[in-house]
Design goal:
355 residues; alpha/beta; Rossmann fold; 2 domains; 13 strands; 43% helix
Amino acid sequence: MTMTITELDARGGGHERVALCADEASGYRGIIALHSTALGPALGGTRFWNYASDGEALTDALRLSRGMTYKNALARIPFGGGKSVIIGDNRTRERASVFRAHGRFVETFEGRYITAEDVGTSPADMELCRAETRHAAGLVGRSGDPSPFTAHGVFRAMQAAARFRWGADSLAGRTVALQGLGNVGLNLARELREAGARLVVADVDAERARRAAAELGAAAVAPGEIYGVAADVFAPCALGGVLNDETLPRLTVEIVCGAANNQLLEARHGDALDARGILYAPDYAANAGGVINGCRELLGWTPQRSYERVHALYDTLLHIFSLADSEGIPTHAAADRLAEERLRVAGTGDRAAAE
């Protein structure tokens, strides 16, 4: 047995358990951060990324797992929050051994943590995990690829933002600067195009951006140029931390609404958006479509019920915008307040009321 698990001290972030696992035989190295099981087993995907260091990977896992707690709370599903990160090149040819090792690591959480796909992973990878643990979802032929559902939820959040800012849901004729053309970003771009939006797109993969621009009739710009595009909406759909001291002064948009997790580098950047009069759709509220779709597999929901709940993210975002406006607080603070209230109620032992 070559697997070594090291428990990490992350009590300062309120996490229930954080551990690092190394498996010499497969070359696997990963972190699981379990933030909260107040609402039920922690649910959150596995991100496979070539982090510069273990410290960088740990920071990402801690932030993402807390975001999952808040996302699941606002989505009103009976799951807490957790996240996995695998450290390394996600183009590896040793996927079977890596993901079986990951499955064994997930199993050590004894059902308190359920994983699924995320950046750099796929339903096929979850099938490999499943060989070692029952606690892997997003399987082929079941709930499967969550990307279209995440994208639709973000589209509905953007419609809610449009109604709150401009008085109408329609995005026809609006220009959206969309960053990141992975599975979610491309699905969102297609939905926006069908709605009549004009698109300016960027991706770190120049060929992917070129293909998407040709398909969508969009303009493509270099990754570093997307922040300064003259647009109505900025839609970050790549990695986190893109709203920061360097990028915020370049934005000319009225709305920020995208699929990326942890878009704000720090909470104060949400305050800065608010001070500039830019309406921010909090990421963990807008991008909950994927975890809602997972309830088909985990809770036996019908596809119709899942779709209706994703579609209803529009109402969740309107509630957040209205609360922020009435209380005179930034939208990210309003979203946190709503999520924390649900967690508070669950802490009283009344999970039914929390739902």
